[in-house]
């Protein structure tokens, strides 16, 4: 979704990027990912291959463009203003913010389903999807580092971001694949469940999940 201060050029660029993703995903569904070319995607959008590469470095990156959304500046500011805290508390706050972001700007369920399905069938798509999540992890780690005490071990922000992104990825994939539940148009409940399991795993004591 665009911001209120977004200019016409930025909006058009965002819309074109979105259109490339939608067309790439549709063609992959219709023809199989390995048969789809950058030329086919470009023709479907009405742009040149050269213009395509102004938006994406490969057809894999175009297919997996959708997940995950980045935290809005307002959410980031609120999170950082929370100040230093125990790593577990910071992780809890971070997962709550990620869930709030998903609630505000939920992805299309069918698109997320198709992306994960393609990732499981095409190794290059899987690699692109993991790279996409990893890029978000790095951004989150930098955000966490802004909040942590300066003396905190530099591994801590990265680990917090990694655990949070794992919960989000797990919840989103379960949401996209749960064909028995056709009522939910948001992954929030599924991500919340993943976070609950995560919190149980991290809680003191012994747990049996068999």
TrEMBL record:
Keywords assigned: DNA-binding, Transcription, Transcription regulation
DNA-binding region(s) in UniProt: 37-56
Superkingdom, natural source: Bacteria
Record SUPFAM superfamilies: Homeodomain-like
Domain (HTH tetR-type): residue spans on this chain: 14-74
PROSITE patterns found in the cross-reference section: HTH_TETR_1, HTH_TETR_2
Protein name: TetR family transcriptional regulator
């Amino acid at each position: 979704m665009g911001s209120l201060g977004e200019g016409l050029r930025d909006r058009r660029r965002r819309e074109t990027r979105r259109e490339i993703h939608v067309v790439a995903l549709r063609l992959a569904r219709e023809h199989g990912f390995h048969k789809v070319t950058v030329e086919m995607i470009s023709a479907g959008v009405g742009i040149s291959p050269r213009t395509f590469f102004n938006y994406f470095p490969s057809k894999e990156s175009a297919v997996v463009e959708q997940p995950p959304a980045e935290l809005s500046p307002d959410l980031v500011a609120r999170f950082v203003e929370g100040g230093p805290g125990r790593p577990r508390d910071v992780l809890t706050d971070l997962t709550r913010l990620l869930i709030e972001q998903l609630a505000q700007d939920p992805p299309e369920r069918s698109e997320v389903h198709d992306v994960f399905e393609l990732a499981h069938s095409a190794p290059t798509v899987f690699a692109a999807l993991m790279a996409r999540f990893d890029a978000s992890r790095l951004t989150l780690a930098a955000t966490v580092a802004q909040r942590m005490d300066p003396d905190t071990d530099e591994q801590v922000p990265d680990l917090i971001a990694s655990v949070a992104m794992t919960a989000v990825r797990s919840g989103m994939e379960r949401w996209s694949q749960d064909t028995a539940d056709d009522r939910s148009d948001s992954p929030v409940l599924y991500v919340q469940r993943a976070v609950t399991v995560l919190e149980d795993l991290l809680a003191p004591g012994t747990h049996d999940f068999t």
